[in-house]
Amino acid sequence: MLILETIRISLASIRSNLFRALLTMLGIIIGVAAVITMVALGTGAQRAIDEQMAALGGDILSIQSSSWFSHGIARNQATITTDDAMALATGSEHLSAVVPEITSRFQVKYGNKNLNLTTVGTTPNYPAVHGFEIAYGVKSSAADEAARRRVVVLGAEIPGMFDADAAALIGRTVQIRAISFQVIGVFAPKGGSGWRNPDTYIWIPLSTAQFRVTGNEYVSTISAKVADTSTVSMAMLEIERVLRREHGILPGKDNDFAIMNRKQFAESRQQATEVFTYLLAGIAGVSLVVGGIGIMNIMLVTVTERTREIGVRKALGATKGNILLQFLVESTILCVLGGLLGLALGAGAAALLAKYAGWQTVVTTQSAMIAFGCSAAIGLIFGIWPARRAAQLDPIDALRHE
Q1: Closest Cα partner for 36 from 335, 358, 354, 367?
Q2: What does pTM read for this prediction?
Q3: Neighbours of 325 (CB within 10 A)
Q4: Are 220 and 355 part of one and the same domain?
Q5: What is the per-residue pLDDT across 149-164, written as a single tens digit (0 to 9) for each?
Q6: Domain range holding 292?
């Protein structure tokens, strides 16, 4: 009953100075909102990396030409060819599939729409290796590859970008770099974000890309899928052995290619994002401390204003513990209310960033509970000094206070 009575008195005190209470809570509100928003951004970034990792495939290795440095700038030197892909496909025991790819950006025109899109020239086994499924039409075939046919398969978002129905696009003609291509299929949504969103790509046969579009014998990337019975490290060693042999690299000389383990790369990015999230949350948490100092200042003012009331309560039998509890409860209620408002503000800010800025944000229960718990703890910590000062007042001096 004592606690309930103390809470009732504290709420009455807050209501009597509502505007001042709102200003007092402002620091806590902003602090909690900032923590929630920053953590939501960081968690959303980690979620995006997980989705990209799932889309790319954790058991797929990427082989690219190595970079050389000139005047402090990394420059790509093309060294990977379709012959390398053929050598890996026929001479590797630890790879289940090998997919050469030529990736470029070209102007793609359909009707009155003209878009700059990522165009991937690749082989017919690309969808199976990378987990793509056809939603409409068909995928390119070995016959298309052998005949260098001008056919194209669109990513799931491309029809919408052309303001066209996906099914209706099958059989229609689009122009890639002013060259006519027939649309034979549309992939099902794959998922992704930003410039690494495969749903905004288009795919053409590798031979068509080399001899009709780019005129380049080199490929951008070779994707190699690790066999189920092998490990990534075994596959990487085998790839290095085969390519060094194909390129005639002498012992002791550096590779002219690079093998990227996408899983390790994604994990490194995720760790960096996690550290960055903690850093942002820590910076935002400083505003919580500032808000706590504001709570303490106002509570000290409140103690001074209510000195006579404290004297009356002590004269009527209130103990130091009763007075201490009253002011601690009051400061905690201020912080808890500020925390609730901050939670709502932070969640709203995260939703607005996701809707209008296009950033992926995730507000988790864990982050909300931590931010709310910190606000309540700040109310207790920064309320101790004013509460102790009120509890230690001499009742006679307090009654004389004007």
Answers
A1: 367
A2: 0.60
A3: 19
A4: no
A5: 999 999 999 999 999 9
A6: 2-52+267-400
